[in-house]
TrEMBL record:
Name listed for the protein in its UniProt record: Molybdopterin synthase sulfur carrier subunit
InterPro entries, per database record: Beta-grasp_dom_sf, Mopterin_synth/thiamin_S_b, ThiS/MoaD-like
Origin: domain of life: Bacteria
Pfam family, one: ThiS
């Protein structure tokens, strides 16, 4: 299992402060696998190119190249807002 931590408005879409996501049997969890394991509204929201992803605290330069393993923490960071 990997632990998904949606932050900000993404947590509202997830309906929980964290989610447990099962890993594929043979491969690490990739971006498409993550989206398939998430609630539909959250999966749609994280397709926004401004949403960033961190694994175990390390920000990924390209979320499409994500590879997560057992026990990893996947943080979903919404776009920064402010004024």
């Amino acid at each position: 299992m990997a632990r998904v931590i949606p932050l900000g408005k993404l947590a509202d879409l997830a309906g929980a402060p964290q989610l447990a996501v099962p890993l594929p049997l043979s491969d690490p969890l990739d971006w498409q696998g993550l989206k398939a394991a998430l609630p539909a509204m959250l999966a749609e929201a994280i397709d926004d190119p401004r949403v960033r992803v961190a694994i175990n605290g390390a920000l990924l330069p390209n979320k499409l190249m994500m590879q997560a393993g057992a026990g990893d923490e996947i943080a979903l960071l919404p776009p920064v807002s402010g004024g």
